[in-house]
Fold DNA polymerase beta thumb domain-containing protein.
Amino acid sequence: MVQELLLHTALGGQYFTFGERQRYLKLAEHIAKLPTACGPALVAGLLPRRGPLSTPWRHAASHRIAYERACQQMRQEKQQQEQRPKEKELELINKNNRVEVYYDDARTHENRLGDLLSSHDFEVALIGKLRCGSPVAPRAHFLLTNNLYKDLSLTSHEKNEKSFEEPNARVLFARAMKGLEACGYLNAVARKRLREYGMKTTRYVCIARQPSFAPDPLTSHNNRGMQELLLSWSPPWCFHVRKLFLTGPDLFVAHLMLLAYEKGYELLQDGMYKQSEGIRELISLKSEEDIFATLQLPYVHPFHRYAYCRLHNLM
């Protein structure tokens, strides 16, 4: 916040008068002298806006910037405090009783998650190396979407970065995770915000008990290990494209993107587009196979994609 105010101070006269720059500098110095995190202290000082004219809070522009940044800081601190207990629980489970995820385990988790969420029009898909046939991985990664508000007639223009984190999507994703935690299938659900393909996305890290495939008198339900699951969200119109991107391998995806470009298409993480008379039209995809069909290519099963890359000297 201090650096931002100092930046406003350093801007040229065409943006701020000399007096305004002096007020920004004064407010920055005031914030820098606060002994602890400035969020609570700033909000407490900002709300009344009383005192002599020399008080920094009397000026609207500096007041607005400082207030917005203070509220943002307080929200971030609150979210971090809420996540710390669950992150500690995750670390404890990971150290004591965590086991790797085998391919059969991942498919079982995928089917059970799909069964639990299917009544609410959710769709679950396994992604990552396990979908490519890796026999074992440290964790299993799944992609969720909801087809209730699916609208494939939307074209081109409005599928930008904001579409991935629209409020309705966040609410649906959060409700799904709370439901899975409430029914006891998932434990220690922790939310993380990260950048993925140039945009901010939400990912849930959680723990689930390892599935059992056959009754074993030497193995009880209580001593099976805990496995780490990652769950990401995708809007319905780009679910199959994102499934392709997040399954990989990256060289295979880059190869498809180049082939799509040569044929007049645009294959991006938020959908597949066709340029037509200067208008970017979103192509309706009902499955991952439709991507290959649109490009007039034979479908390559995830099990064979690494071999495809080696065969075409992509690796």
User: Anything to note?
Assistant: The chain has ten helices and ten strands. Confidence is low (pLDDT under 50) at residues 46-58, 155-165, 214-222. The longest strand covers residues 199-209.
